[in-house]
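Please decode residue identities from the backbone states below.
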């Protein structure tokens, strides 16, 4: 039965936008891709930087270096033909010049026949990558198959060329223009630009990520404790300041709502109970033969029970301090408290959890009350660990309830058919659901095959215990460090 015009709405939007169970492909992608916005931005910017470097090198190689190699190989081919051609003669003002001496003075090309001056040929990975291009181009220009080209950096840049016609001798040419090239400068350009870009991006992203992390921590703190600090609104990017202003306004509104709730609770508890007490006293003083006396007293008790449920629903325990809680001790206390009910409970090994003990005790007490009112004894209590959760169950041996009414009964002001003649307002299971939600748990109610109703509360175990039980590998440590820092 619903109390019109209130019609509790299911939180469909929350369910829609809640995190869903990940598929196998999504879990694989989560392992290989950065999860934080800081690392994703850093990886993206570094990709752009390296792509720019690659395009610059490719442009330099295709438009500058390859044409330069081809042109230089053509000049070398002409010089080698002059050196290897014994019939070539050069005249200046009818004076014949020595070809080798003229080439040495004018171009710097020398024909070396002294083995002591021969280069000590060594494999050089980077240098060979470039000289192979010259060898291929020279072989094409000279129309021969075997050409050896060797590049020497020290003591001064020079290039050595050898062909089969030289019979083991070498031709060397100084590369004075290459003396201006610095390997250190090239290395600094190739590595320094990405490293500096990465440092700058990490610094900028960290400055943006810190306020987001504070916002996340404040929101999580409020969802767990009902309290959150106000955030900075005078510094940082405009978008972050506007988000912080909206968050501060939301916290202020929630605090104002909490103050109004406390005032309303005080009014219900004091202002309404006082006239109810007077009515009860007046009814007690009525003659025993007055037929209105019994009904009046019953109505006052019913109103008092309804007020108690209203107050319990509003005092959901969110303002209660968290403390170490032993579930077994709590259940044993309840079993003693509800004597002489036939409550059966056998303790099993359970870890201690951090929870709101009084709220949990009130939660399980409500379920026991429901079992007593609408079910049948014996009432069974059980608690055990399953899949990183503590499962607490309260079951009875009554008739149960129709399956189509289970979800509705957890809404406020909704009562089953069996509860219409019993005192209450329909808030019992709603109180239970609200306390379970505060503990980030789950509540499920179902009929048992052997008869009766069973309510199961699933409370998550602390995350810290899971993290401590696992030894992270070095990659996980680095990933966790970067996530914590940025």
């Amino acid at each position: 039965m619903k109390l019109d015009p209130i019609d509790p709405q299911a939180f469909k939007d929350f369910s829609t936008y809640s995190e869903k169970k990940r598929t196998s492909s999504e879990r694989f992608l989560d392992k290989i891709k950065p999860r934080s916005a800081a690392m994703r931005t850093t990886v993206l910017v570094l990709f752009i930087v390296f792509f720019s470097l690659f395009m610059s090198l490719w442009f330099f190689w295709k438009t500058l270096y390859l044409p330069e190699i081809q042109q230089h190989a053509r000049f070398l081919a002409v010089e080698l033909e002059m050196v290897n051609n014994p019939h070539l003669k050069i005249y200046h003002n009818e004076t014949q010049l020595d070809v080798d001496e003229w080439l040495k003075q004018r171009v710097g090309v020398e024909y070396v026949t002294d083995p002591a001056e021969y280069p000590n040929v060594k494999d050089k990975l980077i240098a060979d990558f470039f000289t192979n291009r010259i060898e291929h181009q020279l072989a094409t220009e000279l129309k021969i198959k075997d050409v050896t080209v060797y590049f020497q950096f020290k003591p001064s840049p020079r290039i050595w060329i050898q062909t089969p016609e030289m019979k083991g001798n070498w031709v060397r040419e100084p590369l004075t223009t290459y003396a201006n090239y610095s390997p250190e400068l090239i290395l600094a350009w190739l590595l320094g630009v990405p490293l500096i870009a990465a440092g700058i991006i990490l610094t900028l992203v960290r400055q943006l990520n810190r306020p987001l992390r504070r916002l996340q921590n404040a929101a999580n703190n409020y969802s767990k404790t009902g309290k959150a600090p106000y955030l900075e609104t005078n510094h940082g990017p405009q978008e972050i300041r506007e988000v912080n202003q909206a968050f501060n306004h939301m916290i202020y509104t929630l605090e104002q709502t909490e103050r109004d709730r406390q005032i309303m609770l005080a009014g219900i508890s004091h202002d309404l109970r006082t006239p109810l007490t007077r009515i009860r006293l007046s009814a007690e003083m009525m003659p025993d033969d007055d037929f209105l006396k019994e009904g009046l007293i019953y109505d006052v008790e019913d109103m008092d029970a309804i007020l108690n449920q209203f107050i319990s629903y509003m005092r959901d325990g969110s303002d209660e301090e968290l403390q170490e809680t032993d579930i077994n001790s709590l259940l044993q206390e309840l079993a003693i408290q509800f004597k002489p009910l036939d409550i059966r409970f056998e303790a099993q090994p359970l870890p201690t959890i951090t929870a709101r003990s009084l709220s949990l005790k009130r939660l399980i007490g409500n379920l026991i009350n429901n079992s007593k009112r609408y079910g049948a004894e014996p009432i069974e209590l059980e608690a055990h660990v399953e899949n990183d959760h503590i499962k607490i169950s309260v079951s009875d041996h009554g008739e149960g309830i129709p399956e189509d009414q289970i979800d509705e009964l957890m809404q406020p002001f909704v009562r089953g058919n069996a509860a219409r003649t019993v005192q209450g307002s329909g808030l019992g299971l709603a109180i239970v659901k609200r306390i379970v939600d505060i503990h980030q748990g789950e509540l499920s109610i179902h009929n048992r095959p052997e008869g009766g109703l069973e309510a199961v509360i699933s409370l998550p175990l602390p995350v810290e215990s899971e993290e401590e039980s696992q030894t992270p590998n070095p990659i996980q440590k680095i990933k966790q460090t970067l996530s914590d820092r940025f």
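Observation: The first strand starts at residue 90 and ends at 92.
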